[in-house]
Amino acid sequence: MTDVFVSLEDAAGYEGISYEAIKKKVQRNPALFNVRKEPVSSGGKPRILVALSSLSKKARRAYKEAQNIEGGDEVVIEERTNSDDVPWYIDADLDEYIKKFGKRYYEAVELAKHIQEFLNYADRDRTGFAEEFAAQLGMSQRTLYRHSQAYLEASAWALKLGKQDGKNYDYLKVLALCRKPKETYTFPSLSEPMKAWIENLWFDKRFAENQGTIDMLYTKLQQVASTNSWDYPSYPTVARYIGYLMEVKRYKNAHYLAEKGERMYRNKKLRKALQDMKSVPVMGLVQGDGHTFDVWVEYTYPNGKKTAIKPILVGWIDTRSRCIVGDIICHTPSAQVIKQSMLNMIYNEVGGVPQWIKIDNGKDFTAETLTGRKRTERMSLDSEAIGFYRSIGIQDDFRSLPYQPWGKAAIERFFLTLINRFEKWLLSYTGTLTGSRTSSKIKKDIPGMLERGELITMDELCTLWRKWRDEEYHTRKHRGLKDQGEQWHTPLEVFQNAERYFKAVPPRSVAATWLMQAEERVRVYQVGIRRFGYEYRAPELDAYIDDYVNIKWDANDVTRLHVYDRITGAKICEAESQELLQIAPRAPQKALEEHKRAQNQQLKADRQRLKELTTPLEERIGQHIAAEDNMAGVFIGQTAKGKAPKVVALPQDKQYKEDVRSKKAARPAAVENDYYQKRAEAALAKLKELG
After folding, report:
1. Which of 22, 23, 634, 687 has the fewest CB neighbours in a 10 Å radius?
2. Which Pfam families match (predicted)?
3. How many domains, in total, are found in the chain?
C-alpha cells in the first residue's frame, strides 16, 4: 500500500500540536520520520511532507475522520470522548448563551457550515485545498485545523449524549466553535474568611433591623482587616460582592427575613397557593371581616353629644361571586353586631344561609356565643358544641390565622377596592396609615369640619354605601371573575346564575331570640329576679328560689326576661315585671337605661335640696350661707309694754321663694355676698342684745 504524505501544517493539526513543535520534532529525529520534499509551483523553498505512517496513532485516526473514513459510531465516540476533561459547552445553557452572546453564536453557525464543507473534501492535494480554504475564511491553516478538531470532538459528544437519551445535540457542534465565556463573580481579591465575615454581618439580624448600609459594613471591614492583617479590597469590590449575594445568588428573601421579621416575611415573601374559588358554589363559602373606614363621619351619642368617628364596616363576601351578601356599619363591633350582620345576610335577597364561613381572628368574630367554643379553641371536635353560627344553619366556621390576611383573600381584596373606588371620593377621607406607607396619611382639620357641619352623618354614610354596593360594585365587571374563568363577569350575575348552595332560612320569630342579650348565673330571690332595678316574677321561679338561672332578654323589650335552666339549658319561663308592664306594653332597654339615669339625677338633686332646707339657722349664719327667702323679717322691735320681741314664722309661699331666688341670681356676686355679710352682722347684733 502506498504511503500517504501530508504537509507539516496538517500533521501538526492531526497531532494537536503547533507547527513549530512538529517541525523541530522532525529535525531532531530524522530517522523516525519518512520525509520528502515537494517543489512549489510558484517558486521558493520546497514544501516538506511527512508520511502518515510516521505519525502517532492519534494523528492517523484524525486523518481518517477528516477523510470521512467511517470507523463506526462506537469507535468515534471512544476516541473523541475518552478524555477526563469534559468540554465547557456540555453543561452550558444554550438559551442563556444565545441571550448573552448572540453575535458569537450566529457567527459560529456560519463557521460550522464551512467546517463541515472542509471535512467533506475527499479529493487529492488536501493540503493545498486547506491552504486555499483557510485563506477564503480569513484564518490560518492552523486555526482551520483547530476548529475542525473541535467540531469533530463536539460531534462525538453529540453522538454519545444522543445515544443515552435519544435527543438531538447537534447544537454542541456550534458551541464548540464559540469562545468559552469568561468566568464572572469570582472575586479573587476576597479571601474565603473575608467573604464569610461580609456575609455574617450583612445578614445579621441586628444589623439588618437597623437598616445597615454597605458603607457601614465597609467601614467595619477596614477595622477588622487591620486587626486580622487582611489585605482588604476596594469599596466597589465589596459592593459588587453584596450585589452578587442579593441579585445573583437570590438571597434577598433571607435578608428581608432578617430585616423585617417573620411576620412581615410570611405576609410579603412566603409562597402562597392560589385559591380555586370557582370550585365552591355560590354561598358555599363566605368570608367575614371588619374594616375601619378611612373616612370621618359625624356621630351622635344617646345624650345628644356629637363627635367625629371613623366607623367600622362588618362585611360578608361570597367567595365564588364576590358579592357582598351581608353587612352592617357600626361605631364599635361586638358579638351582638356580628349577629345582626349575619341576620342581614340570611334574610337578604343577595344572601342566604352559607354552608361554611371563614372569619377573622378578632375577638368579636370568635366570641364563644357565636362559635360555641372558647376563643383559645380554633376548631371544635365536639359534635354537641353549638353557637350562633351553627344555630342559624351554618355547618362550621374556620378562623383565619393571626397576621395572615391572605387566608381571607377575597374580602381583603374587596377592602382595597372599597378604599379606591368609594372612600377616596368622600371629603373627609384621611388616607390609609400603614407600616409601609405612612406617606398615604392625609392631614385634614376634622374637628373644624365637625364644627362647621361638613362631615356626613352615619345615616348618610350608610345610604351612600348601600347605593355604591348595589349600583356600582355588584354590577361592575370584576377582573377576578374573568381570571377564574367565569361565564359571567359581574358579581351579581355570577350570584344569580352560577351553581348555588341552598339551605332554608329559619323563621324570623326564631331569629329574634338570637339577638337577645345573654347573662349567666342570675340569682332567684323570693321576690323574683332583680334586673334593671325591677323585680321579674313568674310562678315557675318558685322552685329556683336561692338558686341560679340563665337569662336572656330582648334589647327592644325589657318588660320580660327569658329564663333558662343553668344545667339543662331548657327554657323555664318568661318572667315579667308588673311595674314595667303598667308603664307600657314594651320598654326598650336603651330607653329604660336613660330613664334610670334621669331618675338618679333627679334623686341626687332633691337630696341636695333637702340637705340645704334642713340646715339649722345657726349653722347657716355661721357658714355665711343664709338666704333672704328664709331670714327676711325675722326680728321686730320691742312693744310699748317693753315685752321681748317675738319671732315670726319663716315664709312658706313657694312662689315667693322662687321670686327671691330669681332676684338673688340677678345680683352680682360681690354685691350679694356683701349684702349677706351685712345682714348676718345685723342678726348677730340683735342676738347679742337679746342675750
Report:
1. 687
2. DDE_2, Mu-transpos_C
3. 5
